[in-house]
Design brief:
- This protein is mainly alpha-helical.
- The chain has a single domain, classed as Alpha-Beta Plaits, CATH 3.30.70.
- The chain is built from five helices and four strands.
- The longest helix has 19 residues.
């Protein structure tokens, strides 16, 4: 019956095939195939649930019908050069002078790189979508 009303697209120029989206999605939208992640079941995606895009570390998941724009909506509103400079400053501030020691410490801690707020929102969206699908 045509395209689903809400579905994700993967920007393969950004995707690292980490599989976090496939592991996070409760609805079987993604599948790991031949070393990369694909959208195998777009019909399974729940309306207005961009949770997988929020947890994607590479911001590679786009929802064309996301009404708020930004990276999730596929917008290129972010000035890449400014963003790279901000990231470089943040990295320097975070890692300090001894980058190898800082990276080793980070590796040992295995902390998530996803902001807590984004993860909280993603979990909430996923739960809401699951609750809505149980009503059907």
């Amino acid at each position: 019956s045509g395209w689903p009303s809400w579905y994700p697209l993967i920007d393969y120029s950004r995707c690292t095939s980490c599989g976090q989206c496939a592991d996070f999605c409760l609805f079987g939208v993604y599948k790991k195939e031949d070393g990369r992640v694909i959208v195998s079941n777009p019909e399974g995606c729940k309306n207005n649930c961009p949770a997988c895009a929020r947890i994607c570390p590479a911001t590679a998941i786009i929802f064309p019908k996301y009404r708020h724009g930004g990276a999730i909506g596929g917008s290129d509103e972010i000035d890449e050069q400014s963003e790279q400079q901000r990231q470089a400053h943040d990295i320097e501030e975070f890692l300090g002078n001894d980058i190898y020691q800082a990276l080793q410490g980070r590796k040992l801690k295995r902390q998530s790189i996803i902001r807590k707020e984004a993860m909280k929102k993603a979990l909430s969206e996923r739960d809401r979508a699951r609750d809505e699908s149980s009503l059907i």
